[in-house]
Structures are given as C-alpha cells and as structure tokens.
Write a structure and sequence with these properties.
Blueprint (H helix, E strand, L loop, with lengths): L21 H20 L4 E6 L3 E3 L27 E10 L4 E7 L5 H19 L5 E6 L10 H15 L2 E6 L9 H13 L8 H9 L8 E7 L11 H5 L3 E3 L7 E4 L6
Parallel strand pairs: 1-5, 4-7, 5-6
Antiparallel strand pairs: 1-3, 2-3, 3-4, 6-9, 8-9
Helix pairs in contact: 2-3
C-alpha cells in the first residue's frame, strides 16, 4: 500500500539554512567568485582553510568499512582518558595547484593555531611556489578558529603573516551554514575521511600516514606535519591593539570581507 502511494524509506536532507537570507548568501558567493577570478588571473595564491574534526588518538572505532580478513578490535568505549592524545588537522588547500598542507595539532584548535598553520604553509611551500607574489586570498568559514568574529585570528594574521613576511592578505568568509561550499571541505577533508575510514587512529604516525596517502583522480597531493605546540584558549585582543591593525573592509558585507596589509616600520 505504501509503495502504491509512492512512499519509500528516506533519510533527512540537510538543506534548510539559517543565519543569512538567500539573497545575502548569493551576493557573498558571487563576490567570492569574482575575487577568486581576479587572484587567479594574477597568479596569486588562493588558499581554502578549515579545521577538520578533532580525532581521539588510540584504539577507538572509526566509522566506515574496509577490506580485511578479520575485524579490528578496538576499545568498547570512546573515553578521552583512554586516548594517547588528540589530533586536530588544520587544512590549507591551494585551490589552483590542487595541493594541501595539513598541520596536525595536539592541543586545541584556536585562532592562534590556525594562523601558525598558515604561516608555516607560506614559509615551507607558498613562497617557493609563488616567489613573485605578495598577495594571498584566504577562503574561510564564518566560525571557528578562523571565524570573522575572532579578534585573535585577525591580530595574529597581521603580525605573524602580513608584517613578518610583508604579505597583503584578503580574507573572504563563507556565510553561516554554507561551510560545505568551502573548497577544502569537499575536495580534501572528505577525501581524508574516506581514506582512513574503519582504520583505528592508534598513533600519530597513523594519522599522518593516512593524511599523506590521500589522493584523488584529479591528482590531489597532501603534505602533513605534526605540531606539538600547546595553545591556550581564551586569549583576548584589547581594543587599542585592534585599532593598530592595517585592515580595510570591503563592500558588500564588510564583516565577511577584508584585507590586511603590512604595517610600515614593523
């Protein structure tokens, strides 16, 4: 009777968005597309950044299925006290080169950790591939460590990347609820999850191995490093420090689009 009435077993579809109107979202998407086109024509780097889900390191169940002669035995509970530690992958994806650089943190996914990862990418890869460029376009989600409200994110970008390396950085944030359109999410993060599905992430070496061996038919290559630096939560940036930033907001949606420039004499 249900089949006759065209019923079938269905899952929920995550399509209802919140936080911004469809018109606002579309306006931001079009603005990001224009910025990407401009940077690509100048051969300036375009990086899409995001922190992947925190993973417990130890003998814990990992979702998915994998070919094996026998099932792997893991802990019957996912207690944090049973873990060797945590792995927090922060992914920097070069959209034009189809290359990713992953910093696996072992403490907290803070704005400071996000900026340190970007600075490390530029120092070890970016400036080698773009020796004549002094502009970077960063595509980021609207929340988290690299969110548009995070003062530490902007302040550390200013002093650790712009001032230190004399770089001009333009940041464009995706609207709330639209992070799945950030290229790093559907071109890198999901591929890493697919590569290590059903594999217990028992050691940090295992985490790094499966990140580095993630590939796609389009030629994705990933470099990964372990970052053991300890990061503290709750850092604040006072108003007077924010006023010293060399930041210029863009229209439309100035809170989502801004450019940081190197400060003279710093």
């Amino acid at each position: 009777m249900l089949k006759t009435l065209k019923f079938s077993l269905r899952v929920n579809h995550k399509k209802r968005s919140h936080g911004s109107s469809p018109a606002t979202r579309d306006l931001q998407f079009r603005y990001i597309r224009r910025r990407r086109t401009t940077f690509a024509r100048r051969d300036d780097p375009i990086i899409s950044v995001d922190a992947k889900k925190r993973e417990l390191v130890g003998h814990f169940k990992n979702d998915g299925k994998a070919w094996s002669q026998a099932p792997r035995v893991v802990n019957d509970h996912d207690f944090r006290s049973l873990a060797t530690g945590v792995a927090i992958p922060y992914v920097i994806y070069n959209t034009e080169a189809n290359r990713a650089f992953v910093c696996v943190g072992t403490s907290r996914g803070t704005p400071e950790f996000a900026v340190d990862s970007i600075e490390r990418w530029w120092r070890l890869e970016g400036r080698r591939h773009y020796p004549d460029s002094n502009h970077i376009l960063i595509l980021a989600d609207g929340g988290g460590g690299n969110g548009h409200r995070a003062r530490v994110w902007k302040a550390r970008l200013q002093d650790r990347v712009c001032d230190r390396h004399q770089l001009t950085i333009t940041v464009c944030h995706y609207p709330p609820g639209a992070s799945k359109w950030n290229p790093v999410d559907h071109r890198v993060n999901c591929e890493i999850s697919r590569n290590w599905q059903a594999v217990p992430l028992d050691r940090y070496d295992t985490v790094l191995k499966y990140i580095r061996t993630t590939t796609t038919a389009t030629g994705l290559r990933i470099r990964a490093q372990l970052i053991r630096k300890q990061y503290d939560k709750g850092l604040t940036v006072p108003d007077d420090e924010m006023e010293q930033l060399s930041i210029q907001t863009h229209t439309p949606r100035s809170r989502w689009n801004y450019t940081l420039s190197p400060r003279a004499g710093v």
